[in-house]
């Protein structure tokens, strides 16, 4: 194991529109880190395995209707219920590669017209990612890739609004990666950025909190 007791894992988040490649890139990153002897886990939000997550899943599958603010708070609660486990894992030296996080929460709800600051408020105090990787792809291109399913939000017009909301949220510290490149090229770029970050966290970079 590359990690000792004093070193912590990194909290690394992948964000981007539906069909931009987040999920496959996330699992490849975990394999890459494990191959180098690092402890790493793949996480995703929403985590549909919890009881809150099952309510979210039913909503996304159009099996239930919920008020926009209600579902927003459920997505947030789904992160809060995982927060202590997240902190425990990071402190034990495990790097977490997280497929969507608070930025999806704010981008998707504010794309429906919910006030941005209102959307951010329940996220305050969650662990802040050490690294946000934004897989950049125009909404039209993502839609062309096919595979939009039947879930709520999987429509081009809505994805365009989400893209605008991500732009508003975007922070200078985010790493923007052109997700239109071949999958192997995207992966190479992500690997380098991620490894640098994992090493910085091992050297003692402190954990911080949202929203800053
Ligand atoms: P996937 O499971 O395919 O990633 O789709 N979402 C996600 C929100 O609206 N708020 C959130 O806080 C999160 C994490 C994005 C999940 C869908 O749920 C949206 C797409």
UniProtKB/TrEMBL annotation:
GO molecular function: ATP binding; dTMP kinase activity; nucleoside diphosphate kinase activity
The family this protein is said to belong to: Belongs to the thymidylate kinase family.
The organism of origin for this protein: Acer yangbiense
Broad EC category: transferase
Residue intervals of the Thymidylate kinase-like domain: 14-189
One Gene Ontology term, aspect cellular component: nucleus
Name of the protein this chain belongs to: Thymidylate kinase
Pathway stated in the Swiss-Prot or TrEMBL entry: Pyrimidine metabolism; dTTP biosynthesis
Keywords: ATP-binding, Kinase, Nucleotide biosynthesis, Nucleotide-binding, Transferase
One GO BP annotation of this record: dTDP biosynthetic process
EC number per UniProt: 2.7.4.9
């Amino acid at each position: 194991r590359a990690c000792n007791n004093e070193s912590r894992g990194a909290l690394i988040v992948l964000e981007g529109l539906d069909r931009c490649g987040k999920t496959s890139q996330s699992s490849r990153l975990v394999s890459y880190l494990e191959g180098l002897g690092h402890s790493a886990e793949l996480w995703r939000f929403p985590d549909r395995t919890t009881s809150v997550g099952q309510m979210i899943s039913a909503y996304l599958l159009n099996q239930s209707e919920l008020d926009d603010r209600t579902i927003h708070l459920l997505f947030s609660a789904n992160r809060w219920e995982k927060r202590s486990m997240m902190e425990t894992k990071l402190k034990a030296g495990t790097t977490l590669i997280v497929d969507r996080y608070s930025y999806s929460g704010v981008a998707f709800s504010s794309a429906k017209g919910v006030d941005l600051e209102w959307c951010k408020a329940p996220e305050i105090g969650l662990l802040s990612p050490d690294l946000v990787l934004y897989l950049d792809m125009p909404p039209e291109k993502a839609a062309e890739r096919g595979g939009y399913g039947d879930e709520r939000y999987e429509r081009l017009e809505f994805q365009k609004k989400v893209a605008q909301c991500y732009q508003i949220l975007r922070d200078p510290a985010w790493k923007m990666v052109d997700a239109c490149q071949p999958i192997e090229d995207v992966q190479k770029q992500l690997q380098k950025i991620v490894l640098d970050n994992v090493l910085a966290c091992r050297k003692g970079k402190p954990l911080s909190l949202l929203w800053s």
